[in-house]
Write a structure and sequence with these properties.
Number of strands: 0
Shape: elongated
Helix content: over 70%
Largest sheet: none
Number of domains: 1
Mean pLDDT: 89
Radius of gyration: 19 Å
Length: 170
């Protein structure tokens, strides 16, 4: 039985590490981490000596906090730089297309595509609205910087999930 528990913990950490690698690429890594933790709670003993439901709720709360932080930083960071809402929406759409299409660079192509897409989406929109290249570049840089900060914050939340699960498992 001990070998089965060890295998379950190993699979949990493989999923957690995969989730951590997904987050900077703009993919739903925290959700993968939560699903892995919930599956481990269902099949194994996620919280020895404690409540499994509490552990699952805490992981879920961390994931939701990560999503809210990411959204808030993306929007409020750009708004503080006086970027129009249309440019923010264009940056989000550009980032989605960029992440999906990606750049043919191993492992980080989606991240590069995401950042290029965010920049170009905001730049093109701002160029049509403002009609000044300098203003469009400023808005695109502000939006891209907000995206980078949001990805960093969400990666920190992913790390918090791993730390929390490690503490309750061991």
């Amino acid at each position: 039985m001990e070998a089965l528990a060890t295998t379950g913990i190993a699979l949990l950490y493989v999923a957690l590490l995969a989730g951590m690698l997904m987050i900077p690429l703009g993919l739903p890594g925290t959700w993968l981490m939560a699903i892995a933790a919930w599956a481990f709670a269902f099949f194994g003993d996620l919280n020895p000596g404690g409540s499994e439901m509490t552990a699952c709720l805490i992981v879920g709360a961390l994931v939701l906090c990560g999503e809210l932080i990411e959204l808030a930083v993306r929007i409020l960071g750009s708004k503080m730089a006086k970027v129009p809402t249309g440019a923010i929406v264009a940056a989000i759409v550009g980032g989605l297309f960029g992440a999906i299409i990606g750049v043919p660079v191993f492992l980080i192509g989606s991240l590069i595509g995401l950042l290029i897409g965010v920049f170009l989406g905001a730049f093109i929109y701002a160029l049509f609205i403002e009609r000044r290249v300098s203003a469009a570049i400023w808005m695109a840089v502000a939006t891209t910087t907000s995206q980078v900060v949001a990805l960093f914050a969400k990666t920190c939340v992913g790390l918090a999930i791993i730390i929390y699960l490690t503490i309750i498992l061991f």
